[in-house]
């Protein structure tokens, strides 16, 4: 069964999303504010880019030369890269950063700046993950490869018995796959699925774009540092590894606990491709918020701790999620629907670890 054959119900709680959208729209109208980025979002954007580029240029121009300080610069760049991805690129790729489509377009290319393909990300994240959340065979976020089992409908292998231990390490390796083979394998797969045509792009065109962007990335992120940074080559390689590991681990720890949780459902379509719930209700059953009261944490992770609000309103900038969360939760309760939320990030990680252990030992669900 392919993605085109899956159909969400139009009758089950059909009035929920209409009522919710009306309430959320009324919030923005009453406050007379835009659904897009505000001044605080722009300042955050400047900060995140500075967190990446200031350490980079301090090393390139020889201001920082001590080996330990050089490694510290790469650490800061790792947090900067993750911050840019979570807080800037993510909103831009959803068209939520600005009402100007060109601003969103060019900010979305930040994904290429960190060695990955913004085009592939849009398909994997915007189309497949947001449309078919936690549906085995559709949502690639729960299909990281044979070493991890993130769905009860996926085959169970012996190695999965220990995934609650080694899985955390693999999350840190995420961006290394982007740097090497993943983008090329994804692009070919999306061509076979007919998803390139829906985006009005050709395989060869995106392939050339991907190759060029990776050459440029390796040029500025590795070759230039090797030439200009006054440190041994192995220090630079270690720093490069640390930067990407921090980025991958940060992304994994934010995105996976939002859906791979004991409270999350993994619904599957029936033989004809029909889903039990409508799309909006499906998001409530498959998504979990965490640390809703942690302002600093929410600021850094681009509001993605409010994952429910993000899935229901991906076209609204994340700076508004905290405020509309009250509306979303109230409506969910009113309609007798779940609103899963963990009080802290730590408790979310604990529950996610428990789910990894459970999925690593329970047999395949038919």
Describe the structure.
Pfam families: FA_desaturase. Residues 68-341 form the Fatty acid desaturase domain. It is a single chain. By secondary structure, the chain is an all-alpha fold. It has one domain (3-359). The protein has 17 helices and 2 strands. It has helices at residues 14-31, 39-60, 67-93, 101-108, 110-113, 118-131, 163-172, 174-179, 182-192, 195-198, 203-228, 233-255, 279-286, 295-300, 307-312, 321-334, 345-359, and strands spanning 288-290, 340-342. A two-stranded parallel sheet has the order 1-2. Helix 1 (14-31) packs antiparallel against helix 16. It is globular. The model has no long low-confidence stretch (mean pLDDT 94).
Helix content: 55-70%
Kindly name the structural category. mainly alpha
* Element string (H = helix, E = strand): HHHHHHHHHHHHHEHHHEH
What is the gyration radius calculated from CA atoms?
21 Å
Number of strands: 2
Could you state the oligomeric state of the chains shown? single chain
Organism: Roseivirga pacifica
GO molecular function: oxidoreductase activity, acting on paired donors, with oxidation of a pair of donors resulting in the reduction of molecular oxygen to two molecules of water
Transmembrane segments: 41-62, 68-86, 106-123, 165-181, 202-221, 233-255
InterPro entries: FA_desaturase_dom, Fatty_acid_desaturase
